[in-house]
Amino acid sequence: MLVLFTPPHCNGKFASKYNHLFEEGLHALILRLKGATLRDYEELLLAINPKYHCRVLIDNYFELLQYTTVGGVYLNPSKWDCYDEVRSFTSRVATSAHSLEELAKVPFTPTFAMLSPVYDSISKSGYKAALSLEECKMQLPHIPFPVLALGGITPTRYKEVKNYGFAGAATLGYVYEAAEGLLSAFRRFTLPEVLSVGGHDPSGGAGIVADSQTISRLGAVPLTVPTALTVQNEKCFKESIAISRQQIEAMLQLLFETHPVKVAKIGLTSSLEDTLSIAQLLKQHGVHFVIWDPVLKPSKGNALLWEQNKSLIEKITSFVDLITPNQFEAEMLWGNQEKSDLSKVAKAHDTAILVTGQATKKGFIEDSLYTGEGKVHSFYERETPFDKHGTGCALSSYIATRIAQGYSLEDSCRAGQKYVALLRASSSSLLGDYRVKEEDLKKFSLQQVALQYITNSSSSEDILQKAKQYLDGGGRWIQLRMKKASHEERVATAKRLKQLLRNYARAVLIIDDDVEAVLKSNADGVHLGLEDCGIAEARKKLGWGKIIGGTCNKEEDIRLRAIEGADYIGVGPFRTTQTKEKLSPLLGGEGLQRLASFNKQLPFPIPLVGIGGIIEEDLPLLSKLGIDGVALSATIESSNDIQATVQHLQKKIATLWHIQEI
After folding, report:
1. Is the dihedral of CA 173, 175, 176, 178 positive or negative?
2. ω into residue 260 within 30 of 0, thus cis?
3. What is the pTM of this model?
4. With 60 as the cut, is the pLDDT of residue 613 above it?
5. CA atoms within a 13 Å half-sphere pointing along the CA-CB vector of 353
6. Is residue 506 within 8 Å of residue 478, measured between CB atoms?
């Protein structure tokens, strides 16, 4: 794990360089500014691509957690009493200490902590090393959270500190002051390594091959030790050929001589005795976080792969940090337990249990995380139409990689569930497409932004009838607006619309101001007004795979939406409209052009869509103002032939906006 600090007087221009580092695999940047204002912190966030805000931690102005998607906070010892305040907004909390004694006094369990100065500081002249590495080697394995070395860290020392119990390092001076430049300096640091100990599946859908694909895709280095060779493909399992315990241990022993791994997962083994032996060996070699994915039986087959033994299961539970059984495996391990009973098991062994794939009555899949502190977290995703071979492997290796990159367990499990859902939906075959990314799917949908249709009815039948005509005319973006309808009516209508949209390639469904309806209907996204639910709150529920749009009426609104991470913005109203009761000040052409000019000077301009009373005759003017498209309601709804009207509008917009195909 590698963490970077910003220099104390970092500005937006310098902060923009961190985008290249995020692309290269940086997963934790701490914004630590000297004497800065809230607006200074906002300017840095504007300079960083919104999709990377979740990798940013802030050391001040914690109110940013309420309206941005920053990933966590850094609390130095003077701010330890702020923990309860920030914990309600984020589960990723980092801290620091200047001695092993101070480290032992941290009053909470951080996601990770930094210990300094390990070496003479590069950025602080006269700040000398004050820690014994040998003492660190003895004590750090007993600290219940990852500890990073801080102070004088170079690429060579980054590798060295892992031999003394550190899970990684944090740096400022070397990268900031490197003569070869920020990116070149960063590239000299190695990516985190994640170890997968499990079976080999020739199809690559499960086991160590599938683990390696997930680990690599997330920007870490996969290390593998096989425990068994299997005779199987994605459709059929015949047998497992065990590799002896002595051979497994020999491979691990030699690997650890040059790779001080801190995070590992155990998958398929030939016996519980082998699982226990591997878990013990991993802990003996300083692996800080061990995940056990208890492969009790193959996904395609009924044979049990090992005999149950309550005593061995309890011993393994005490040696690992997270167990990831599906519902069947959980029942085989601990019986048909209630949630409160599983919580007691986790607390008794000071480990975490993630029970996956629990179907609910409302068409959702529930994953339940039971922590060693006695807490229970539930995560939900809609059921997907396709099954996949090896989803348990994908989930556990995803969580392992995120832990190695410095994310909290709760965040890693939540994101892992979304990853598996994406993998399931990636194709109709039993083998998932590991190349598919949420942001790629969203980017494809955003290409349809040029002509949006906003519904204006409370009747599902009326909406569906007009939506079909709009789609038949070539329109591909529908915003479901049913202000006077109930939540249940919106969900029911959205589900019917979603079914209709399946017949039209690239069609997009956005729901106005109802995040829960998006989740329940699996719509493509949500549009939020300035007085609706915050974009950051919606993003935490929907993830980065869903489109989130927002409304803006002035420059400061656009700046806020950019900080929040909106995917597109509806700017207006252009003129008076009959479809909205509460109107912001009218903008007209001059106002829209002013907002478009402001948007263009942002580090990451956002697609702008003109809204409010727009008619066909306005299109030539609007196409010259710098906006990317228009949203229409009355123009479409009042047409006697919606299909023909939309076909005409499509051609006109394509010509005026110089779009080859919309």
Report:
1. positive
2. no
3. 0.82
4. yes
5. 30
6. no
Give the strand order in the sheet containing 322-323.
237-242, 221-232, 193-200, 263-266, 289-292, 322-323, 352-359, 364-370, 376-382
Q: How far is CA 660 from the centre of its chain?
A: 33
Q: What percent of the chain has pLDDT over 90?
A: 74
Closest CA relative to residue 500, chosen from 543, 473, 529, 471: 471
Are 350 and 145 a contacting pair, CB within 8 Å?
A: no
Closest by CA position to 640, among listed 442, 494, 466: 466
Question: What CA–CA distance (Å, rounded) separates 3 from 557?
Answer: 32
Question: Which domains does the chain carry?
Answer: 2-188 (3.20.20.70), 193-436 (3.40.1190.20), 442-657 (3.20.20.70)
Alpha helix stretches (DSSP H) within 259-309: 272-284
Say if CB 614 and CB 635 are below 8 A apart. Answer: yes
Written as six digits, the tokens of 95 are 């801290």
d(CA 658, CA 623): 9
- The Cα–Cα gap between 212 and 216 comes to 6
Query: In sequence order, what are the beta bridge partners of 549?
Result: 527, 568
In this predicted structure, the answer to whether residue 479 has a pLDDT above a threshold of 90 is: yes
Which residue shows structure tokens 């806020």? 560
What per-residue confidence (pLDDT) applies to 662? 47
Of how many residues is the chain composed? Answer: 662
pLDDT digits (tens, 9 = 90+) for 385-401: 678 888 999 999 999 99
190, two tokens: 């190695």
At 437 the pLDDT is: 67
Please give the distance of CA 547 from its chain centroid, rounded to a whole number: 14
- Residue 438 banded pLDDT, cuts 50, 70, 90: low
| Residue showing tokens 């059984």 | 325
Query: Residues 404, 207, 247, CA angle at the centre, nearest 5°?
Result: 90
Of 228-237, 260-269, 344-353, the poorest mean pLDDT is in: 228-237
Measured CA angle at 413 (ends 396, 208), to 5 deg: 10
How, if at all, do strands 193-200 and 364-370 pair? Answer: unpaired
